[in-house]
Amino acid sequence: MTVEFTLPSALEAHEPPEARGRARDGVRLLVSRRATGEVSHHEFRDLPALLTPGDLLVVNTSATLPAAVRLDRISVHFSTPVPGADERLWITELRRLTGKSSHPYTGGCPGEWIPLPGGATLTLVGRHTDRLWQARLSTDVVPYLRRHGVPIRYGYVRRDWPTASYQTVFANDRSTGSAEMPSAGRPFTPELVTRLVSRGVLIAPITLHTGVASPEAHEPPYAERYEVPEPTAALVEHVRSRGGRVIAVGTTAVRALETSVDASGRVQPSEGWTEHIVTPERGVQAVDGLITGLHEPKSSHLMMLTAIAGSELLTATYEAALAERYLWHEFGDTNLILP
Fold it and tell me: Burial code of 107-144, b = ≥16 C-beta within 10 A, e = fewer?
């Protein structure tokens, strides 16, 4: 099932909310309740009042890398290391720069090398998919990106913003990092986290390093590195055993948790690479609710949202978001789905 709608360009968030005169936690929050079918309108800073003491928020601690390296006509987007390979062999996307936007670049051939800033060289090893390459950088990737990269942005964001604009309050700089921001965590601030904890809302970490998106083809996510640590798995099971609600902050947290569910339906500590895709047919076992952004038409994430919210509520949610002119994309407004 997919939600059918057309996204007007006027509802695309072109810059961070701070540039629009709003605080991070001042973005709008659309709340969808599966039990009643009700959809209501709030600001993100209202979140503590919308949750119940004993609820558990599971957050992604992956930091956002400046994962784009630009040349005159081509931009290289570094996505993730190739599973099982050395750390210099990464999955990458080549994009042709056209003004302020970019589009997939279909050229290139195995063995071709691309000179990059700072004296580095990227060698195309072979196709990973029709859109993506496996490519080897002549130096260690993450330190190189931190010196020469900029955050990935697409055409709806009209100018560059510093990497700090793409970090969440939960970002852990010791981690490798994500190609694109785990954006559901962006509206949280230290003050809001303090208010949540003071209300009795629990917070636990997972890590999932996101790869590059597919804004043109809307492909499902491919293998991504993740970790569900033992304390988080134990806390999820404790909350569930007491009848509490587990609310994932972002589709990345859903993917990590659902990957870690064992045959008996319990969340176990685990780490590695996940290819798990949440669909309405598979459903969810670890997650009761979700905080997420608003997703584009035909986005694969809508399958996950349907699994959590149900098709009727999700359709009502997106109709309300369009009618009330909520903003889409990583700098836009948010949606809280409650059971």
Answer: eeeeeeebebeeebebbbbeebeebbbbbbbeeebbeb
The answer to whether the CB of 92 falls within 8 A of the CB of 135 is: yes
> For residue 9, which of 267, 332, 339 has the smallest C-alpha distance?
332
- Rounded CA-CA distance 28/30 in Å is 7
Q: How many whole angstroms separate alpha carbon 94 and alpha carbon 255?
A: 26
Q: What is the DSSP letter of 45?
A: G
71 C-beta neighbours (distance < 10 Å), count: 13
Q: How many CA atoms lie within 13 A of 184 on its CB side?
A: 25
| Eight-class DSSP state of 273 | E
From CA 223, how far away is CA 255, in angstroms rounded? 11
pLDDT digits (tens, 9 = 90+) for 25-60: 999 999 999 999 999 999 999 999 999 999 999 999
Strand 132-137 to 89-98 pairing: antiparallel
pTM summary value: 0.94
Count other C-beta atoms under 10 Å from residue 193's C-beta. 18
User: CB count, 10 Å around CB of 322?
Assistant: 16
Q: Within the chain, where are the H helices?
A: 47-50, 141-148, 190-199, 230-241, 251-259, 301-309, 311-323
DSSP secondary structure code for residue 288 in this structure: S
Cβ neighbour number for residue 48 with a 10 Å cutoff: 17
Residue ranges in the chain whose pLDDT is less than 70: 1-2, 100, 174-175, 215-218
Question: Collapsing DSSP states into helix, strand and coil, what is residue 95?
Answer: strand
C-beta neighbour count of 323 within 10 angstroms: 8
